[in-house]
Amino acid sequence: MKRWWLLGIFGLLVALHGSAQQVIYANLKELVEDRGDTISTLKIEKRSKNQILLMGGADYRISVDDNPGLCRYLKSRCYAVRSDSTLYVNCKKMRYKRFRFGGWYAPATWIQGKIYFCAQPVGSVAASTTQPADATKLGGDVGTAIAASGLVNARVYYELNPETGKVEFVGKDKMLQLLKNEPELLNAFLQESSESAEVTGKYLLRLK
């Protein structure tokens, strides 16, 4: 009997520990200070390509069951969510220059005191790195449709400054700055020809 009681207590502690790993942050200050509210019922879903193409926005939808008020908060007002060791930032709160990223959440990580998140390219500079050549040739509605469908799969990295909230595109110039004290990584990066998240991400993660 005592054994089952102890197992029950252990199971409860494990459950409480697990629930404590989901934290929501109302603003950038709370995120920087890691001072958010613990939630145990978050549902994190990967959005489909069709959903992103039709409605725009980032890769992850974060919600809760049977709580419309909290769902609205997560969608519109929450700044970031941490689930275990994975961080997500609300793209509705992000701006790159004057461009918006749309709604929902993008995966993010802390690297050398800055936050880097992976999202669709926005703005003329970022979009030009991944725009399909056919879209430029065709132009008009057809070209726009091709460009939009191409951007569904395209991802680049952005740097979020935790002191100012400013967002910068992580392109070649930014990567050269970040890798200047890592000669081996820098030499390898100089051989790359893409600014996509797949390329820049593997070098960023080596800096953690």
Automatic annotation (TrEMBL):
Task: Please give the InterPro entries that the UniProt record associates with this protein.
Answer: DUF6563
Protein name per UniProt:
Uncharacterized protein
